[in-house]
Design a protein that fits this description.
Elements lengths: L3 H10 L6 E2 L3 E6 L3 H29 L6 H26 L5 E5 L4 E7 L5 E7 L3 E2 L10 E3 L2 E3 L9 H8 L5 H14 L1
Antiparallel strand pairs: 1-2, 2-3, 3-4, 4-5, 6-7, 7-8
Helix pairs in contact: 2-3
Protein name: TMM70 protein
Organism: Smithornis capensis
Family: Belongs to the TMEM70 family.
């Protein structure tokens, strides 16, 4: 087994770029909020778990409680509701945030890395033809890859042509019309 240090050393001695991934291709985008998203989700999960384990103990030890069984069920249900609402809401809002985006030229495929519900990296592979731009600008959605909502920041693409190709702007008839007009002006 190769340790991460040795993997970095071997990779730096090779001829491939540090932005190349052997399986996914060339790195074209890296989200700058990846650590923040992971940290906030982890903090939310950990406080919810802590709340679930400590709330019954605190209620029993302090004597604070409600006498009726129905009121106890409603009280604990309300606490449980807020314990689960925050992490679920955070997951729904951030599940499409792209941490890294790779592009494989020879197959015209993209690999988007996002976080799943258990904070592990999730891989989504799609073709450029699967990218759909929403008709109406939506919060937390830049494009759809097949049916999955994805969020990227266009200004974080080191090469603007990579973003244009991802969104299909390089194949748009508008840009082709401009190129024809420019060619006519040169003549």
């Amino acid at each position: 087994q190769v340790t991460s240090f040795q993997g970095v050393a071997v990779r730096s001695l090779g001829t491939s770029s540090p932005h190349e991934h052997p399986e996914h291709g060339r790195l074209v985008y890296k989200g700058n909020l990846a650590k923040v998203v992971l940290g906030v989700k982890f903090f939310s999960y950990s406080t919810s778990i802590f709340n679930l384990f400590m709330m019954p103990y605190i209620m029993l030890k302090t004597g604070i409680g409600v006498d009726g069984l129905l009121l106890q069920a409603a009280f604990y249900g309300l606490i449980g509701f807020f314990t689960f609402v925050t992490p679920v809401t955070l997951h729904i809002l951030t599940k499409g945030y792209v941490i890294r985006l790779y592009y494989k030229d020879e197959m015209d495929t993209y690999t988007a890395i996002t976080y799943n519900a258990i904070l592990a990296e999730k891989v989504t592979v799609f073709h450029q033809k699967d990218v759909k731009i929403p008709d109406i600008t939506k919060m937390f959605t830049t494009f759809y890859a097949k049916t999955k909502s994805m969020l990227v920041n266009p200004t974080l693409f080191p090469n603007p042509q990579d973003y244009n190709h991802l969104m299909g702007y390089d194949k748009s008839s508008f840009f082709k019309l401009e190129e024809v007009e420019e060619a006519d002006e040169r003549k």
